[in-house]
Amino acid sequence: MFNPFDFAAHPGRAYLVATLLPLLPVLLLLIAATIRNIARSRSGADSTASRIYWLFGGDQPLKTGGYLSLACLLGSFALSVWGLVHFFEESHVLRDKPAELTERWGERGDWLRIGSAKGERSAAALQVGYRIDQLTALMFAMVTGIGSLIFLFSLGYMNDEAQDRVADHVAHTERRGRFGRFYLYLSLFAFSMLNLLVADNLFQVFIGWELVGACSFFLIGFYTERKSASTAANKAFLMNRVGDAGMLVGIAIAFAAFGTLNFQDLAAKFDAGRPEAISHSLWILMGLGLFLGCVGKSAQVPLQTWLPDAMEGPTPVSALIHAATMVAAGVYLVGRCYPLFAPEVFLTIAYCGLITLVISATIALVMTDIKRVLAFSTCSQLGFMMLALGVGAWTAGLLHLLTHAFFKALLFLGAGSTIHGCHHEQDLRKMGGLRRKMPITAYTMLVGVLAISGTPFFSGWYSKDQILSGALGYSLTDNRHGLLFFGALLTAGLTAFYMFRLWFLAFAGEPRDRHVYDHAHESPPTMIVPLLLLAICAIGIAWGWPLWNAEASFLGHKLHEGEPAIRGTQFAQARHLAEEHHMLAGGLALLAAVLGAGYAWTCYGKQAPTAEQLKEPAGFVAEKWRFDALYDFVFLRGTLLLAKLSAKADRSAPEHPRRFTLDGAMSGLATLAEVGGRGFRTTQTGRVRQYVLVLALTLIGMLGMLGIFGR
Amino acid sequence: MADLGLAPFQILAAFLFASGVACFVTKRNAIGLLMGVELVLNAANLNLVAAARFVPGLRIEGQAFAVMVIVLAAAEAAVALAIFLNFYNNHASVDADAADDLKG
Question: Is any Cβ of chain B less than 8 angstroms from the Cβ of A696?
Fold first, then answer.
């Protein structure tokens, strides 16, 4: 009997329980919503139904679902902290016995066997299972921790949704509140994300991957009445499909070549370079396919256009899904699949990250919507992580993933608090001077700004410093890739500039719009408490001793224990050089950040921004490097053009027979069915004796075939 | 009897079955068809009873199914005869080949 609570023999099952816990509110909310809807539709005529409807809060959605979801996620968080502590304890005790550690912290079983066990090749099977290692343990704690804070924050932020009538000022309609639905989606998302993290094989990761994509779709389009929101949801979904197609190709190649999708088994095959089972070109294709999935999910060029539009969703969603956790899944998977990539794939990853981080940072410079600045900043930071992974700085990239999650969640929740306080005003140009009205939001956000800029002793410093020294080391081993370091360095400066620009525009100086300023207010405690907690994490999450040594980060050391052994000495020289020139990289990064922040101060902080600086941004950069226009031209117009041409061909062709057109092809199918039917009709003679004869002959024939081939 | 084994009974049953099918295929008279069906069913019954005698695991099952087949055969004969009566009322014949009103 499988006992999920048998933590003594299998402490990893705590993670299993923690993963399934958020599914509970999903099911309960679904059942409750169904009962409520049925009761509502019958409440006029039936008094029992009205009473049940009244029990569920009547026209006003109950907030119970929110509290329940929060409680369940807090439970998951508690379990994950318990697991984190125990795992690191045991990984220390059992460090010489990796097999025993794996056995205690992971289990797996066949879910679907493919083919029979006959013949030489043993039957392949799709497996399900979980395995906890350092990366999973840390990511799990991060997701549940930040998730809990954001669930708490949403209780305040989504308060409007608990009213019976909600006025949507964008779509100019009035609708019923959707408090329960919001938490249903959030909880489903939490479950999917956790499933993705504990999975020990690519197949299960793919399931989680698609589920988080679906949740992201639901939540971006949460305000369904708004055209922009539903379009953005579609866009995100379609863009992710492109990436997922690549990922499926990668998974299929891995399964065809090795017959397993388990991470450990796959990694073991690559211990000594490329195995015989796979050709070099297929190996590259597999890596590129898997990476394309990560490109879609982590919004890297060329599939980055969905992330900024995803800001149409409610702000806590932006914080949870589109900044802290889901978009990090791509980086996580690259980190997970690290042993499987060919050298060429690593180079692709590095350059893809570089292009993304530079392009997104330049766009963030000119955006005026507070959430869009943060969205592009997220793209850019994800680019940093990809760059780090591409140049072999595994620990640095994933450390940045963890620290970034905290300060980006903080920044987004700060932006949410600002937007909530300003009555849904998101335009930076109409803000200004808000620090006097909402001091806690302003100063916690300043912490986030300092962290993301890479100020010493803030968490962002430790990770960014390591990324830059990794990039420098790689560039020094091979001079042709010098751009990797200088691009990252430049962007470190740009990051400081646009983040301080945001803060100065929103919170410093004099108010620019009297109306917004006069009605602004500080947010309720449910929103302030998460901000404060996240601010503390954004400062201290990566601390180690000594504090002033960026490489002494405790979190970084713990993460480093989980680093997969990279084949051969691919990055050995780069790492050596990175450690040697660590001070140089750190110093240059700091200099770039100070210059960027200083320039932001002279432009927006020292004096009030001029009218020139506040005018509507225009031009190539403000149009997001015209990626949208390009895709519109190539794919949308191309499809429409093809459709128009085909319609024209149909119309101009003669009525009968209509060949070589789309309509002709469809009619051809119909004709085929008709002719076939007429032919088979003649066999239906109506003579019972004939039927029996055919039946008997068929039986004899089949028995004969069984006798001949069935041996 | 005990040392005869299962095989002779099965051969007999197969022969009966083949005769039944042959009867069904060659006869045009509807009553003849019914007789063919009866032969096929009895072939199955013989198999079941023989299995009940010689296969240890089917002691009860073989006999139970044989009884069931007998009941089934009676019901089938009743329904078939009713159909033939109606057919005779409409067509004044029991020729099975005349019953092709539903052909395609």
Answer: yes
Question: CA A517 → CA A22, A299, A419, A448, B89, distances in Å?
Answer: 39, 35, 12, 23, 97
pLDDT tens, A352-370? 999 999 999 999 988 888 9
Beta carbons of A321 and A162 less than 8 angstroms apart: no
Contact B97 A681 (CB under 8 A): no
Kindly report the length of chain B.
104
Q: Is the peptide bond before A546 cis (omega within 30 degrees of 0)?
A: yes
Chain B residues with CB under 8 Å of A682 CB are 104
B102–A689 C-beta distance less than 8 A: no
Greatest C-alpha distance within chain A: 102
Shortest alpha-carbon distance between residue A657 and chain B (Å): 28
Give A58-92 pLDDT, tens digit per residue. Answer: 777 788 889 999 999 999 999 999 999 999 888 88
Q: Tokens 């947010």 identify what position?
A: A523
C-alpha to C-alpha distance for B29 and B97, rounded to whole angstroms? 9
Of A422, A266, A404, A418, give the one whose Cα is nearest residue A327: A404
**B77 close to B34: Cβ distance less than 8 angstroms:** yes
Which residue has 């088994």 as its token pair? A265
* Residues A452, A231: Cα–Cα separation, whole Å: 30
The vertex-A688 CA angle with A682 and A689, nearest 5°, equals: 105
Structural domain spans, chain B: 7-91
The amino acid present at A2, given as its one-letter code, is: F
| A222-248 mean pLDDT | 92
Class of B7-91 in CATH: mainly alpha
Determine the residue of chain A that is closest to B19 in CA distance: A696
Between helix A370-390 and helix A394-421 the angle, nearest 10°, is 180
> Which residue of B26, B27, B103 is in closest CB contact with A686?
B103
Task: Note whether A692 contacts B104, CB cutoff 8 Å.
Answer: no
Verify whether the Cβ–Cβ distance A687 to B25 is below 8 Å. no
The interface pTM score, or ipTM, of the predicted complex is: 0.84
Residues of B in contact with A689 (CB under 8 A): 24-28, 33, 96-97
- A64 phi and psi angles, rounded to 5 deg: -55, -40
Reading the block at residue A534, the tokens are: 């996240």
Token pair 């039936």 is found at A46
